[in-house]
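Supplementary Methods S3. Complex input for the flavin-adenine dinucleotide-bound model.
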Amino acid sequence: MHSPMFSLEVFPPKRNAPVDTIYDTLDGLEGLNPDFISVTYGHGTHSDRTATARIAHTISKEYGIPAVAHLTALYSDKAKIDEALDMFEQAGVSAVLALRGDYIDGERLVGDFNHASDLVSYIRSMKPDLTVFGACYPEGHYQSGSLDQDIENLKIKVDAGVTRLISQLFYDNEDFYRFLDKARAAGITVPIEAGIMPVRGAKSVRRMAERNASRIPDKLDALLNRWEDDIQSLRTAGILYASEQIADLVAHGVDGVHLYSMNHPATTRRIWRNVEPLFLGTQG
Ligand code: FAD
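Predicted complex, serialized as structure tokens:
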């Protein structure tokens, strides 16, 4: 049986927080030895475009873990993308996660890249040796007419040169399995990693689910209602919920699990402690 990948995501520290606070997160994750850590990319024209490269450099050079750099396209022209790719190359990234990004009210679109697939094609043409990952949506992207339509568009992105997909968060594994069946039936053969986001607050889960058009299954809804006013108990329940999701995904033979650490290493560690034996058990 193949061994599923286990990867993590971190984000550059928020505005006003020094970029060095990322060391607290990375120190807290030490010893977990994920297959890679990906670093998100600030979106829009006002974000610090160098933070992702600097953190990716730290992850790969100081912590010795393969780093994947996210890169968004909507508000960048080709020159800015070239600049970012050069920075990533110098940072020693092992792959770029090519994204479209979300529309931002009041920001002027550049027009060089309308879809993530445009960015994928561009990276492949400029840096043929660079590995390119893409995002996918088990419940369909919130702007797509239907899951089938979204998967048709996903196939275009993969055919442009994506070698691995990382999924949006989802709370019901059945949604992921349905998506997987449809993607495979559509001829998408690259590995697909399941994105898991641990519950840390009832409001944030509901907000995120609404924004991403993600379903909150009854079991999770009951848990949110039960522990809404007791944050510690909710977080403990969230760790168990995420651990159960991961255990079930591994039992179903998924290609990998991508844990959104949200820069909370203690939560990430507790989940990893619960599921680590399952990953070791699939090797060989
Ligand atoms: P696309 O693949 O372009 O898809 C977006 C929409 O366009 C979909 O509805 C799709 O069906 C449609 N579409 C795609 N191609 C075509 C086509 N050829 N013709 C017609 N329609 C098409 N955002 C950030 O700002 N920074 C990050 O670091 C970041 N990291 C992320 C990591 C992951 C794993 C995920 C799942 C999302 C991340 N996002 C991030 C959010 C992402 O930018 C948004 O979800 C965005 O709305 C879509 O990006 P995409 O790359 O999936 O877009």
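The two ends are 7 Å apart (CA to CA). The longest strand covers residues 5-10.
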